[in-house]
Design a protein that fits this description.
CATH class of the largest domain: Mainly Beta
CATH architecture of the largest domain: Beta Barrel
Strand content: over 45%
Distance between the termini: 161 Å
Number of domains: 2
Shape: rod-shaped
Helix content: under 10%
Strand order of the largest sheet: 1-2-3-4-5-6-7-8
């Protein structure tokens, strides 16, 4: 029997293709087995009878599909044998429809369908002449998973009369039925692509080593300041004076940088070569500028805002004084003997 063959094919698909099934969405395909109880119009001349069949559909929107049902039955005749004495008839029903699923919950949906139905009677008598007309469906879908669902529904279709129908005139009929079945949703799986990204590179730490330029060459020299303290400077072969740990040329230090202490250079009394008066004695400039070692001198007083120094260990009254002119540069002053004798 053709009906049993179709049911077997659908059952095999349910077992062999579960990996391809998906939830209903655009592009999903529905395959199902159908059991039906056909209720015939009295004008057809057939007893109500069970039927078996199959369905197939495709969703072109998530809840809207186009489907086709086919069922097969062998109903009993309601009267004596007729045309050519035949007492057997088979009935195939084709139903094509647009089906809408309205979900009432996560697993329950209301089914509404409308389309065209066609009767195919085999070995016809003077009843059940072939014909078709509009049909409808009302039912429920029970969703067990994204793959499997069950359906139960009622159907009905109208066939208009046709006096010219072969073999006999066709009366106006309205056939109905109740059917139930299982459905399997099939669709090419959108496989998840696992892209293995390369591991991120390790954190790169850039270590920059700052190489200090070599210090300028020079001969270390001690400068005795007006404070009585000595500092080390470097004298280059060109005669430039370099100061500080970086040995910077003293000419590049700028006006805001100066050595500690008070110095005579630029003061009016020193520029005008005035004598220095200290402890009631008069001292006059003696000789040129000289360099001194700080340990060899000691501070003994002050004149004109500039400290005065004498040789370490010298006793009063002093005969020689030293005035700091610039850092490391000194000017000797000797006592004016003429004035001393005059006294």
């Amino acid at each position: 029997m053709k009906g049993r063959f179709i049911v077997t094919i659908v059952a095999a698909a349910a077992l062999l293709l579960p990996e391809l099934a998906q939830a209903q969405r655009a592009g999903s395909i529905e395959l199902g087995a159908v059991g039906r109880f056909a209720i015939y119009d009295s004008e057809v001349g057939l007893e109500n009878a069970p039927a078996i069949g199959a369905r197939a559909g495709i969703f072109f929107l998530p809840n809207l599909s186009l489907e086709l049902d086919w069922t097969y039955s062998e109903p009993e005749l309601t009267d004596a044998p007729g045309w050519q004495g035949r007492d057997f008839i088979s009935h195939e029903l084709y139903q094509a429809r647009i089906l809408y699923t309205h979900w009432l919950g996560e697993s329950l949906g209301l089914l509404l369908g409308a389309g065209y139905s066609y009767d195919h009677y085999y070995r016809p008598r003077n009843v059940g002449v072939r014909g078709g007309g509009p049909g409808g469906l009302l039912g429920l879908r029970f969703k067990f998973s994204d793959l499997i669902s069950a359906r139960i529904e009622g159907t009905g279709y109208f066939v208009s009369e046709d006096d010219d129908a072969f073999i006999a005139p066709r009366p106006q009929t309205f056939n109905s039925g109740v059917q139930a079945g299982l459905s399997l949703m099939l669709r090419d799986r959108e496989r998840e692509r696992i892209v293995e990204l390369p591991a991120p590179p390790p954190d790169t730490v850039v270590v920059t080593e700052t190489v200090e330029p070599p210090l300028p060459e020079g001969t270390p020299t001690q400068l005795c300041l007006a404070t009585g303290e000595a500092v080390t400077v470097y004298i280059t072969p060109q005669g430039d004076t370099l100061v500080g740990p970086r040995r910077v040329d003293i000419r590049n230090l700028g006006p805001g940088v100066a050595f500690a202490g008070e110095y005579a250079a630029g003061r009016a009394w020193f520029v005008n070569d005035d004598p220095v008066e200290f402890e009631e004695r008069v001292f006059v400039r003696s000789g040129g500028e000289v360099s001194l070692n700080c340990p060899s001198i000691m501070r003994v007083g002050e004149f004109g805002g500039v400290p005065l120094f004498a040789n370490t260990g010298a006793e009063r009254p002093f005969s020689t004084l030293y005035v700091p002119v610039r850092p490391g540069v000194w000017q000797a002053y000797e006592v004016d003997l003429a004035q001393v004798r005059g006294l």
